[in-house]
TrEMBL record:
<keyword id="KW-0808">Transferase</keyword>
<comment type="similarity">
    <text>Belongs to the UDP-glycosyltransferase family.</text>
</comment>
<dbReference type="InterPro" id="IPR035595">
    <property type="entry name" value="UDP_glycos_trans_CS"/>
</dbReference>
<dbReference type="Pfam" id="PF00201">
    <property type="entry name" value="UDPGT"/>
</dbReference>
<protein>
    <recommendedName>
        <fullName>Glycosyltransferase</fullName>
        <ecNumber>2.4.1.-</ecNumber>
    </recommendedName>
</protein>
<keyword id="KW-0328">Glycosyltransferase</keyword>
<dbReference type="InterPro" id="IPR050481">
    <property type="entry name" value="UDP-glycosyltransf_plant"/>
</dbReference>
<dbReference type="InterPro" id="IPR002213">
    <property type="entry name" value="UDP_glucos_trans"/>
</dbReference>
<dbReference type="GO" id="GO:0016757">
    <property type="term" value="F:glycosyltransferase activity"/>
</dbReference>
Length: 484
């Protein structure tokens, strides 16, 4: 990796969607660009900026965090500035609040231009459909950065592809779309219980705009799209980035996995969680976490707990009360089956505090990962060679689970296709397949192969080299103003 010099140094503005699953990858991209000598401005709201991990001291001169004031929106609690601050049903009000950042963003950009710091690029998320018009007024081009798998965006499709092959009913999303049919395995689609979530993205929500209209408008006004992904992670043999380039008539540029093992190391090595792992045999523990924004029900939590108990394996459960759970109280004992912690105390740990996830996944006692298949968590699990037990719920998670099952790195918990329900026996069976049965050795071997590929830093740097070249070649100073 070489640092840019002279006229090749760029001024890049990064402006992510207001969710920490987006903020953190954008910040990682910013670190990569700053490390290459470019000036980076990261935009978000005051509370989100305050909650970000600190910028490494050696990058801080080139990576600045700037707050834009989020307007109040009726129905949003005071201080809610990210999707993690609200239950899932209020996420669309966060989009409405985001739209209120148009005026502060315009003032920021005008001030930057007036101060002699006209950006070379503004890099935006799926939700920022109004940014390109403002950037155009100042002759600044825009690029998009999608923090999801390329296969997910290809499945959603372009405006023209959806016009040619309309989809509206949930069942329309239970098979690959026409433009992916020859590239994707038949299983790379949504289950019936997931499909309504996808169908709803095509309809206007509480913000007044559908998610798809946001994404299409954003895409049509940006020069190219960056993906937090790489060829090695996507659906085998699908040629996803070539497909995306053809589908959207814009270059699709993989930036690599954008993961630094040290990125969540905010606590000392004497973490109680790590101390507990130190006492467990090698590869004996399944690490369990479903994220804080997964729409779990109280029944989901009970069946997952009882399934872990029934499986009879050692487990570490990073337990957070999900925003969708309406059970009274916040004590873990009120959300788990009666007596569960006592019955599993000898071989299981339910931890409600901070868990240094990357350090846990790197620990020698961990042998598998039970995950909701968020893209970031999936990448982290495979970076350490762990086979996956997969329990997806929304967004891209179902497609990720099917892709990873196709890659032979894990199994999905069996569920009712209609309502998505699952039982303790389904959880136990999936955990045992990965942790105890002979088949688990195959999953582990395949996951170890993924670890070797994703851990190839030279290859990951090459992805960033290509992105750097695009930004330099097609930026404002090189290619003229405008976002179209």
């Amino acid at each position: 990796m070489e640092e840019a010099s002279g006229g090749d140094r760029l001024d890049v503005v990064l402006f992510p969607w207001l969710a920490f699953g987006h903020l953190i990858p954008y910040l990682e991209l910013g670190k990569r660009l700053a490390a290459r000598g470019h000036a980076v401005t990261f935009l978000s709201t005051p509370r989100n900026i305050a909650r970000l991990p600190p910028v490494p001291a050696h990058l801080s001169p080139r990576l600045r965090l700037v707050s834009l004031p989020l307007p109040a929106v009726e129905g949003l609690p005071e201080g809610a500035e990210s999707t993690g601050d609200v239950p899932p049903e209020k996420n669309d009000l966060i989009k409405k609040a985001l739209d209120g950042l148009a005026s502060p963003f315009a003032a920021f950009l005008a001030g930057a231009v007036a101060g002699g710091r006209r950006p070379d690029w503004v890099v935006i998320d799926f939700s920022h459909s109004w940014v390109p018009a403002i950037a155009d007024e100042h002759g600044v081009p825009c690029a998009a950065f999608q923090i999801v798998p390329g296969a997910f965006v290809a499945f959603l499709g372009s405006r023209s592809a959806n016009a040619a092959h309309p989809r509206a009913a949930p069942e329309d999303f239970t098979a690959p779309p026409a433009w992916c049919a020859s590239s994707f395995p038949p299983a790379t689609a949504y289950s019936r219980h997931e499909a309504e979530w996808v169908a709803a993205r095509f309809r206007p929500n509480a913000s007044g705009v559908s998610d798809m209209d946001r994404m299409w408008e954003m895409d049509e006004r940006t020069r190219f799209t960056i993906y937090r992904s790489c060829d090695e992670l996507e659906a085998a043999g699908a040629g996803v980035f070539a497909l995306l380039t053809d589908l959207f008539q814009r270059p699709a540029i993989p930036a690599g996995v954008l993961l630094q093992p040290e990125s969540d190391d905010r606590h000392d090595g004497d973490s109680e969680v790590l101390q507990w792992l130190d006492k467990q045999p090698s590869k004996s523990v399944i690490y369990v976490t479903l994220g804080s924004e997964t729409p779990l029900t109280a029944d989901n939590l009970h069946e997952l707990a009882l399934g872990l108990e029934l499986a009879g394996v050692r487990f570490l459960w990073a337990f957070r009360k999900p925003s969708g759970v309406t059970a009274p109280g916040t004590d873990v004992g009120e959300l788990l089956p009666a007596g569960f912690e006592g019955r599993t105390r000898g071989h299981g740990l339910v931890w409600t505090g901070w868990v240094p996830q990357v350090r846990v996944l790197a620990h020698g006692a961990v042998g598998a990962f039970l995950t909701h298949c968020g893209w970031g968590s999936t990448i982290e699990g495979l970076m350490f060679g762990h086979p996956l037990v997969m329990l997806p719920f929304v967004v891209d998670q179902g497609l990720i689970a099917r892709t990873m099952a196709e890659r032979g790195v894990g199994v999905e918990v069996a569920r009712d296709d209609g309502d998505g329900s699952f039982g303790r026996d389904d959880v136990a069976a999936a955990v045992r397949r990965v942790m105890l049965e002979e088949e688990g050795k195959v999953f582990t071997s395949n996951a170890e192969k993924m670890k070797e590929v994703l851990g190839d830093q030279r290859r990951q740097d090459q992805y960033m080299d290509v992105l750097d070249e695009y930004l330099t070649r097609y930026g404002r100073r090189k290619g003229g103003g405008g976002s179209g």
